[in-house]
Structure formats: C-alpha cells, structure tokens
From TrEMBL:
It comes from Zygosaccharomyces mellis. GO terms for molecular function: ATP binding; lysine-tRNA ligase activity; tRNA binding. Residues 170-481 form the Aminoacyl-transfer RNA synthetases class-II family profile domain. GO terms for biological process: mitochondrial lysyl-tRNA aminoacylation. InterPro entries: Aa-tRNA-synt_II, aa-tRNA-synth_II, aa-tRNA-synth_II/BPL/LPL, Lys-tRNA-synth_II_C, NA-bd_OB-fold. The keyword Zinc-finger does not apply. Keywords: Aminoacyl-tRNA synthetase, ATP-binding, Ligase, Nucleotide-binding. This is Aminoacyl-transfer RNA synthetases class-II family profile domain-containing protein.
C-alpha cells in the first residue's frame, strides 16, 4: 500500500512539471453543450448493440485510469467507462502512452459514440479523439482515511472519499419544510441579522461593530433569533410568515451545539396551541416522507402514524417525580423555595453551585431537565412537554395563572421544537421584559431577555392572536441521518473545525 502511494505521487509530480510549463493546456476554457454522466446514461440505457448511435459530448471526473498497452486506455467516470483506442482516434499521438495523460481526479471532456463493451455489454462511450483535460488533479487522493479527526479538518477530502449524501439529505429536508409551508400560503421572508440589540431568545449574543455608523451607534449584535422581527411582520399584516436561516449564540460547542446554526421559525395568526401541535405533527410526517428511505426517517414516521405525539405537563410531571406539589409553592421566583422543594438527595447534583447563585429561570430549567426531560423524553416517539412556567417563557401567552401556552418537542432525548401561543398584550409583554431585566441585574443571567421598547410599541398597533414554532434544522438532519454529533451535518463542521480548514 505504501509503495503504491509513493508511485502515484511520483506520477503526479511528473505531470505537475508539465502543468507549470503550460497551465492553459490543463485548464482550458470550456464550450457549451455537453452532458453529465448521469444524463448520458439515462439517455442511452437500453442501447441496441447493433445500432450506430450519433456522436455525444459529455463531461465528468476521472475515478480511475486503466491501461491495456500503449494504444488502449479506459477512464472510469463513475458509472460510465470511456474507451480510448489510439488507432480509432483523430489527433492521436502514437509515441505517447495514453494512460500517462490522465490521473484520477481529473475533470475531462469526452467526444465519442455510445456503445456496449464486447464482453460484459455494459454502456460506454468510445472516444473519437483523446479526451480534453478541463481541470487537472495535482495530488493523489488517498484510497481511504479512517481518522475522523483528519477528515474533520478537511471536509473537501471527506466529501471526495465518502460522498456528499449528507448535503443532499439536508437539501431535501429544507426543501420539504418550504414545500409544507408554501402549500399553506406562508410567505418566506428575511429579517435583519445585525441590529443594535439582539433579542427573542434566552441566549447571549455575539457583539461586533459597524464602522459606517456614527461612533455612538457602532455597537451591534448578531441575532439570536428572528422571532421579534417576524412577529412585527404579523403585526404589519402578514398573517402567515416564516424564515429559514442562521442564528448566532455566544455559547458552547459540543455534540449538539454550535455557535451558529440554522433554524426555521414560522408564525400564524388566529391559531391555538392545539393547532400548533397538529401543524408540527403534519410537518414532521411530510419531512420524513420526503427524504426517502432513511432508516431513522422511516422509524420516526412509523412512530408518528401509530403512536402520535406523547404529552407531559411540565409542573405536574415535576411534582410527581419529586413528591413535592410545585403548584403549591407560593413564589415561583424564589430560589430558596425552589431549593427547598427539590429532594435533598438531588439538590447538590442539580444545583452544585448551591442556592442563591442561579436565577429562578435557570433553576426551573435544571429541574425540568433532570426530572422531566431526562426521565421521560429518551424514546424515539416525539414527546411534548407542555405548559412551562411563565417565568421561563417570557414571550408566551399565559395559561391559567403562572403557566404558559407553550410546548417543547423532544425526540430521543434532544429538543427539536419550541412553540407557543405568542403574548399579544403590550402591557404584559413589557412587564415580562422588565422581569427579565431584573433577573439579569440580580443574578447576572446573561440569557435573560432585554427590554425591547420598540417591539412593545409596535404591539400597540394591534397584534392578532398568534402561534409560533421554532425548529432546529441541524438537529433534525442529524436525527434523520442517525448522527451523534452536530458537526456531521454542517457543511464544514462546527466552528472549531471551520477554523482549521
């Protein structure tokens, strides 16, 4: 194996010297009117062996080169063989070994006639002149590379060795999402990524500057969610609106998180939480049906059609698991009362920092993660956690006194969807913003929302009852492909991988 690599490198080095002397020969301009290998095979499949087909022009990439003496050479274009016989071609050079002109990885243009090989009767193209090299490969491609760390640092090499199936699946997923929403009269929009203050999600923003603005206005943040912009458009008159795009959160990098990721958010006027649940189920069914025969997509589709969506109530489940009636806690914003309500044996495991360090929102999220998500959301059947406390749902419409009309969807232990009926009362929304600002001031919780006076003022023009859904695209693709790490479904991996390429 080692000797073959060395020989291959020498072959490339020999031709690379020729390329340096005359690069135009190996990187010429192309002419229009050639077919791909896939198009050629589709057109000539079932060719009559006795028929004389007209001349064809096609382009492709050389996968392999095989020689049968100086005057006979075969190029494998990945699904199609090019047959070159020096005695049959115009412009031939009797003194040049045909195989020495080409390397695996070359992009070539071929002119010739479709035909069938004599022995196996497989479709091929018999070149009537030596194929033109359109772009020359200048280094050999390794036959395989099992070191995932090296592949992560060179995704171009990864795709060449292992194919681009992930990118194709990701395209199918985003296309299916758009198809679903477009068929229901939603309008796709693009909202600002840069603004003076990112808002709309419990997350820390990236900070940057714009030199074109006055010095006092140069400070900008990358959006953490498009939510408040999209709801402005609902107020403006678009009753069904969505955006599929990037968001940025200055947080950790791990198996399921990357600082930049892709989301889908859609909003619809005059829908309830129950309508949203129905829409989410139909959306997942549509996507799973559209991506083809992926094992995980088929399994998820079977779960959706047989078992549907399981539901859990956030506070009820928490009370049942801990043996404490959380509904009976007088003040849900008191860290001390939440600490006391947590079983003694679990306190240090859930809150290793102790009491009074975390904000109430952080404590509620940890309680939900430990007692509800980890214990009830590990299966493949999609599970909805419903009616979160309003204190951790500042943009959601209230349900009863201290709960919200909100649900999160979990599949196999990971969150994929966050949805709720939107708060459309300006006064309540302003108070929620102020409570969040107080949390930041008192506990230093950087994921707290800031007070967005401009958004509240926009609400005063009148915001219809609205439901909204947020879906993580990267995680959904990861699920359907059976992946375990988010970098596997990003074109060039996570941020730390990107920086090495």
């Amino acid at each position: 194996m080692k000797k073959a690599v060395v020989d291959s490198s020498k072959l490339f080095a020999t031709r690379n010297r020729l390329i340096e002397d005359n690069p135009s020969k190996y990187y010429p301009s192309i002419s229009r009117g050639s077919s791909s290998v896939k198009e050629f095979v589709a057109r000539w499949r079932g060719l009559d062996p006795k028929a004389r087909a007209p001349s064809e022009r096609l382009h492709g990439r050389v996968i392999g080169v095989r020689s049968a003496g100086r005057n006979m050479c075969f190029l494998d274009l990945g699904g199609l063989q090019v047959v070159m016989n020096n005695r049959e071609m115009a412009g031939r050079n009797e003194d040049l070994n045909l195989a020495q002109q080409y390397r695996a990885g070359d992009y070539v243009f071929v002119n010739g006639r479709p035909g069938l090989t004599e022995r196996q009767r497989t479709l091929s193209i018999r070149a009537d002149r030596p194929p033109t090299v359109l772009a020359a490969a200048q280094q050999p491609l390794p036959p395989s590379l099992g070191d995932r760390a090296k592949l992560k640092q060179n995704r171009v090499l990864d795709y060449q060795l292992n194919g681009v199936g992930m990118l194709v699946t990701r395209h199918k997923v985003t296309r299916a999402l758009r198809e679903f929403l477009d068929a229901r009269a939603f309008v796709e929009v693009e909202t600002p990524i840069l603004s003076s203050k990112a808002n709309g999600a419990s997350a820390e923003a990236f900070v940057t500057q714009c030199k074109a603005l006055p010095e006092s206005e140069r400070g900008l943040e990358l959006r953490v969610a498009p939510e408040l912009w999209l709801k402005r458009l609902i107020i403006g008159g678009l009753e069904r609106v969505y955006e599929l795009g990037k968001v940025f959160r200055n947080e950790g990098i791990d198996a399921t998180h990357n600082p930049e990721f892709t989301t889908l958010e859609f909003y619809q006027a005059y829908v309830t939480m129950e309508d949203l649940i129905e829409n989410v189920r139909d959306l997942l069914v549509h996507v799973c049906s559209a991506v083809g025969t992926l094992p995980m997509a088929e399994r998820l589709l079977a779960e959706l059609r047989t078992r549907g969506l399981q539901r859990l109530d956030f506070v009820d489940t928490l009370s049942r698991e801990t043996g404490t009636d959380f509904h009976g806690i007088r003040d849900w914003s008191s860290p001390e009362l939440l600490w006391e309500a947590t079983p003694v044996e679990d306190r240090n495991r859930i809150f290793p920092e102790g009491v009074g360090v975390l904000s109430p929102s952080q404590m509620w999220n940890r309680l939900g993660g430990y007692y509800v998500e980890d214990r009830h959301c590990k299966g493949l059947c999609p599970t909805l956690i419903c009616h979160h406390p309003s204190i951790i749902s500042p943009l959601a419409k209230p349900h009863e006194t201290r709960l919200s009309k909100r649900f999160e969807m979990f599949i196999a232990g990971k969150e994929y969807i966050n949805a709720y009926e939107e708060e459309n009362c300006p006064q309540r929304q302003l108070q929620s913003f102020k409570d969040q600002a107080e949390t930041l001031l008192q506990y230093g919780d950087k994921e707290s929302l800031s007070v967005d006076e401009a958004y509240v003022e926009a609400m005063k023009w009148g915001m219809p009852p609205t439901g909204g859904v947020g879906l993580g695209i990267d995680r959904l693709v990861m699920l359907l492909l059976g992946g375990t790490r988010i970098e596997e479904v990003l074109a060039f991996g996570s941020l730390d991988d990107v920086n090495r390429q």
